[in-house]
Amino acid sequence: MRRPRGEVVLTSAGDLVVMRPKRFELPWWAVVLGLIGRWSWRLTWWCLRHPITTTLAVVAVWLYAEFGWAGVVVPLALAAMLAGVWRWRHAASWWAWCGGPLLGAFRQVFVYRRTWREAMTLCGLSRKYEHQIVLPKLLSVRCDEALDVLAIRMVRGQNPLDFQKATANLAYAFGRRHARVYSERPDDPPARDGRLAWALRLVDRVRYRDRPTVVYVVLVRTDALRKLVKPFPVAELPDFTKLPLAMREDLRTWHLHLLATHVLIGGATRRGKGSVLWSLVRALAGGISSGLVRLWVIDPKGGMEFAMGRPLFARFACKSFEAMADLLDEAVTVMRERQGRLAGHVRVHTPTTSDPLIVVVIDEMAALTAYLQDGELRKRIAGSLGLLLSQGAGVGVLVVAALQDPRKEVLPFRDLFPTRIALGLTEESQVDMVLGDGARDRGALADQMPRWAKGVGYVILDGTPEPMRVRFSYISDDDIRQLATTHPAPADAADILAQVRRETAPEPVRPPVQRRTSGPLLPDSLLNILDQDNRDNGGAS
Ligand SMILES: Nc1ncnc2c1ncn2[C@@H]1O[C@H](COP(=O)(O)OP(=O)(O)OP(=O)(O)O)[C@@H](O)[C@H]1O
């Protein structure tokens, strides 16, 4: 029955319904034509956006029309064989150009799109606007051997922090344990060289352009860090800006930029702090034997951690706290001498054999700063450490320290360490204490490390605020013994502490090397002691 236009009608269920007047009615053929036009436009637009898929589909149809099934199956089999050989011969380029894009396209459609609405809604990332649900848009999925990288356009009114807060939920929503949220593309543009480099760089400028509305969610598909990481090869000439220490989640190597920085390693007991320190020693070994680096090591646990590598160290204190305080004082003396010599000439010290990089390695720093009962000695140590941490980096006197408890009472100068590494920790709050405020919210779940994750930790990469999960190489006792035999510190790195009889450990046999030719490394008083000792030993150096 036709009702008068605009009439208010009472339905049988007792609801009032307003019948709005129809302004005009389209004939049915116009509706059908409209729908056909709309879908044709959508198809054309899709083909334009996916030229490779479209071309492949057209070629497949043509081959089928010309040669039947054989025309499709034979090229497919050939392509699969070619891809297999490619993968076998050069896995990296295969993942970049073939496996990664194909897997990404597959997972975008069949894994992420399928559950997108549900996942976004239940993770609290959908919004309501004008009575409609608005969802973040999945733009693309890139895969590599271990990770899925999702580029997502945020809803207006959202920022990357909203996603970072939901990091763990997002990981579990897509059936993964680990996820990380980046506000910028997590990978850097590749270095380009060759004749076409300029063109590729132009393409990279577009691909890697800043996109403030897009957030990147990295989901760990295959946890590469479950496997033990083998020690990295020892470089005879270490690059202090790029020391290989650990494996990253994306199977690449994580490098430590050691030059002009101090490093703090926080981790609960038995979490692998030793492997971080030994990975660093191994990465520096080439420089140790050639005289570019000197390790001054303090091991308050009586030498349990470091005594095995004794020949690698220029100085070593493990028993007497006075000797440890002396060592730090001497480091301050070297720092002061360098400041006087370099001021006005350079701003950052460059290590040479005559003026080597001095790395003061301290295992369990709390033993010196908090647990030491002698108050006077504790103050002396705190004074030297404060000076080294605030002024030593630029003149090549660096501190690398490990500790279990990162509270301010235990380590008052925590903030003076520019580079931090968090291994497994016991409390949520400790994560931010080690890595800096907000690190846990950005995905550094160091307090949730499973028991197997020894030597696994979070680091902050240069230039990005988001933490990265890595596993440090495992250096066995045999590796340490071998390293100590192949890369001992040279003879002119004599142990002053052993000479003054504070420490009872005997000075190891050192291989002879040429004495430096220029630039005093130490004040004259200390150099005299060294020279005196060498003469006493019958010129062993
Ligand atoms: N990178 C690693 N990969 C695999 N296992 C590791 C790794 N690092 C350490 N481990 C294992 O974890 C255990 C503890 O390691 P380690 O002694 O280095 O920890 P720690 O944090 O220095 O302990 P502590 O607090 O007692 O000094 C050892 O049994 C070691 O074999």
Automatic annotation (TrEMBL):
Top-rank taxon, per record: Bacteria
Residue sites binding ATP per the record: G267, A268, T269, R270, R271, G272, K273, G274
Name by which UniProt lists this protein: FtsK/SpoIIIE domain-containing protein
Organism: Phytohabitans kaempferiae
Lineage: Bacteria, Bacillati, Actinomycetota, Actinomycetes, Micromonosporales
Transmembrane segments: 56-82, 94-112, 280-298
Region (Disordered): 504-541
Start and end residues of each FtsK domain: 242-432
Keyword Protease: no
Nuclease among keywords: no
UniProt keyword annotations, A-Z: ATP-binding, Membrane, Nucleotide-binding, Transmembrane, Transmembrane helix
Segments of skewed composition (Basic and acidic residues): 532-541
Stored Pfam families: FtsK_SpoIIIE (PF01580)
InterPro entries, sorted: FtsK/SpoIIIE/SftA, FtsK_dom, P-loop_NTPase
